[in-house]
Amino acid sequence: MENTIYQAVDITAGYGSKVVLxxxxxxxxxxxxxxxxxxxxxxxxxLFSVLAGIKRIRSGRFLLDGKExxxxxxxxxxxxxxxxxxxxxxxxxxxxxxxxxGGKEALQKGMDGxxxxxxxxxxxxxxxxxxxxxxxxxxxCIGCAMAGNPKILIMDEPxxxxxxxxxxxxxxxxxxxxxxxxxxxMSSHEKADWELVDEIYLLKDGKLAQNS
Length: 212
Hints:
This protein is of the alpha/beta class.
């Protein structure tokens, strides 16, 4: 498939005896922004954790740039924003970011006109995560996911808890990221967010279908 950066082929995954995804195949185009929609409980969060290399699959395979890869390789190339923020609440914002950026030098690049500055995280670097509002924690989580400029961003409800101003900042960052060749996969219940995307897929009964 032309311009395809990521493929999931015949993926089956679930919990215990319950199958959530059944022989699901899917691909992402480089530089695109794709939206997954579906009813609550349809398996969107399971799908995203699978595609990010976090949750193990029962069968299937993944390809990046046409080459088959495992979960660890996926994790190195993908920035992941789950529904629940995977932050260390007892640490400061700066310490959480350092864990993802891998050192002060890389973190400084993110602050000097980079994603950390654009998400307005510089002003809260010294604050403990557990003292922040839900929207601020979400911004920190997004900043962590974009560490190292990953090839792909997988974002489960990235705009949750963000006010309108912060959403606009986020969407500007995502548009610029895609223009630079990055690829975004996201979910959202807000139709206003759909203006950002190039393609929409519906997840139902463990399968994905393109939504017209």
